[in-house]
Write a structure and sequence with these properties.
about 5% helix
């Protein structure tokens, strides 16, 4: 059974293009609560037919994923920083790999699931802090797919962006993470859009500027 919690966020302004953004917000779902910690999956909410081609940080808006208040990200020795390193065929041999912390666009694993392949690339990012359980941040880097790669397309209004496992986490994302990022993609008509400065407010009850309600559902691992 899921427990749904309303979340507030500051959503950045559309920058650089005249077309309205199809970005509607983002949601985090708790998908596991186990020995490695509490695992969240982050999804962008998009209008039908839209897609995401890049997550990035630049001079207009930095990218930051950071565990707060003494928490850290779980990083499995068999995993890596992006979904290209998450081989689901190894889960039976290394069950903890399934809960590694990593980023992506669309594809959950290296085989591309739920798409046919995973064409994710990255540029300009130093992954060393993140791979040690610390912050992932950049003001001049990106992970991306090309507009021809199916994995950027929305499925039922969502695009998978990242998985984060908080060691010792409680399922209270308000107090466990800081989140800032930018997105680029195309709308259903093929027009390019950017969304700058998407930010998670880490305090319950805070007022939201251009806010939206995200949803966090909690599901415990089956015995």
């Amino acid at each position: 059974m899921y427990r749904m919690i309303s979340m507030l966020s500051v959503v950045g302004l559309l920058a650089g293009f005249a077309h309205a953004s199809p970005f509607q917000g983002f949601s985090a779902y708790v998908v596991n609560d186990g020995d490695e910690g509490v695992t969240y999956r982050l999804y962008a909410q998009l209008d039908a037919g839209a897609r995401i081609d890049a997550m990035y940080g630049n001079a207009q808006g930095s990218l930051l994923f950071e565990a707060r208040d003494g928490y850290s990200f779980y990083q499995d020795a068999a995993g890596g920083a992006t979904s290209q390193s998450i081989n689901s065929q190894f889960f039976i041999f290394v069950p903890s790999l399934e809960w590694d912390s990593y980023v992506s666009i669309g594809a959950l694993h290296s085989d591309g699931h739920p798409f046919g392949s995973n064409e994710l690339n990255d540029i300009g990012i130093d992954w060393s802090s993140f791979e040690s359980g610390g912050a992932l941040e950049t003001d001049n880097g990106s992970w991306f797919v090309t507009p021809n790669d199916a994995q950027g397309e929305e499925l039922m209004g969502e695009v998978f962006l990242a998985q984060f496992t908080i060691e010792g986490g409680t399922g209270d994302l308000y107090h466990e993470m800081n989140i800032m990022f930018n997105l680029q993609g195309k709308d259903a008509d093929g027009n390019t859009w950017n969304q700058i400065g998407i930010t998670w407010i880490p305090a319950p009850g805070a007022m939201a500027l251009l806010g939206f309600a995200g949803l966090v559902g909690r599901r415990r691992r089956r015995a």
